[in-house]
Amino acid sequence: MHSGSTSHLSAPRTTPVGIRRKTTDGARVIASVEGRVGAVAFDSLVVEVGGIGYRVFAAPAILSTAQPGSMIKLHTFHLVREDQQSLFGFRTTEDLGFFTLLLTVTGVGPKVALAIVGSRPTPDLQLAIMAQDQAVLVSIPGIGKKLADRIIFELKEKVAAAGIAASAVPGVAGIGAAESEVVAALQALGYSLAEAREASRIALSDATIGGTLEDRVKAALRSLLRE
After folding, report:
1. Which string of DSSP letters, residue by residue, matches 121-173?
2. Which of 139, 160, 162, 205, by CA, is between 20 and 30 Å from 218?
3. Which of the 8 DSSP states describes residue 71?
4. What secondary structure letter does DSSP report for 119?
C-alpha cells in the first residue's frame, strides 16, 4: 500500500452516523465526516465514527486546534486510486471546492493542493491568482516559480471561460449579464450559487470598480475576504 493509504477507509455495509456519502458517476464517495478526534499527527488526524477510525489529511490550522476527545466535522475529498485511498478534510465547502479546482491544474497533486489551501484564507489566495501575484504562491513550501505560473495561468483561464460561457446564454430572471458572468466565475472557483450571487451584488454595487470581468471578480473576492 502507498504510504498515504489507510485501512481506516474500508467502509462497512451500513454507513455510520456522522459519515455522509454522495454518489458521483456511480461511485460511492465520502463527502464529510463528523465524530470524535481519536488522535492527531503532524499531517493528519483520526476521526472516530461508529467504532471506525478515519484518517483525514488536513491543513495545520485544523490540526493545531483539534484535540483528542473533542468533536469535529470536516468536509472531505475522497481520493481513490488503484493503490491508495485517502481523505482530505476542510472546515468549509469553499475550501474543499478550491482544493478540488486546484487538482485540475497540471502538476498539482493533493498534497500540494492541501498546502496551498491551508496557507491562507481561500479568497486571499484567489485574489493573488487573479492579480497574478506569483510571490504569494512561491512562498508556499513545494511550489516553485514554474508551478506558480501554471496555477495562475490555468485557473485564470477557467475563470475567464466560465464568465464567457455565462454571457453566451440567456440570463436568469433577476440577474443581469454582468452579474451572471461574475457568478459563473466565482462558481468556477468553488463557491456556492448563493455565495457567488451575494458577493457579485456587493461588487457590482461599487461604482469605482473597473468594467472588466477580472475587475468585478476581484471586487467580489475582496467582499468574501471581509466576511
Report:
1. -HHHHHHHHHTT-HHHHHTSTT--HHHHHHHHHHHHHHHHHHHHHHHTSPPPT
2. 139
3. E
4. T
Task: List the one residue out of 62, 56, 58 whose CA is nearest residue 18.
Answer: 56
Question: Residue 38 has which C-alpha cell?
Answer: 481519536
Contacts of 170 (CB under 8 A, 6+ apart): none
Is residue 102 located within the same domain as residue 191?
yes
pTM across the whole model: 0.76
Residues 106 and 214 placed together within one structural domain of the fold: yes
Q: Say if strands 84-90 and 52-57 run parallel, antiparallel, or are unpaired.
A: parallel
Joined together, the cell numbers standing for residue 9 give 477507509
Which grid coordinates belong to 36? 470524535
pLDDT in tens, 187-221: 888 888 888 889 888 888 887 777 788 888 888 88
- Whether 165 is covered by a domain: the verdict is yes
CATH number at residue 185: 1.10.150.20
* Continuous segment of H or E residues that includes residue 49: strand 44-49
**C-alpha Rg value of the chain to the nearest Å:** 19
Residue 14 predicted with pLDDT over 80: no
